[in-house]
Design brief:
globular; alpha+beta
Length: about 90
């Protein structure tokens, strides 16, 4: 199992279904820096998908947080992320 911090765990709680950046931010009441840092970290671990539309995955590999307009994207936990979140 990969390590997941409390912020990443809380964020994955919100991503069992496709969610917009705005929906996640409202649900967690986090600032942009904290949210983007956590999204990028989960993405790098393979725990979430970044989507440009609710059913279209972002096709480029994201190597830096500045590469993506996070507030315009949608997010969904991957199978790997869900298994990690549930402790398997």
């Amino acid at each position: 199992m990969e390590n997941m911090n409390d912020n990443e765990f809380d964020l994955l709680d919100e991503l069992y279904f496709v969610q917009s950046y705005k929906e996640i931010k409202e649900a967690l009441q986090w600032g942009d820096d904290k949210l983007i840092e956590s999204l990028f970290s989960l993405y790098c671990k393979g725990f979430i998908k970044v989507l440009i539309a609710q059913d279209e995955e972002y096709s480029s590999n994201i190597s830096t947080p500045q590469q993506v307009k996070w507030e315009e994207m949608y997010y969904l936990a991957t199978k790997k992320g869900l298994l990690e979140h549930n402790g398997f």
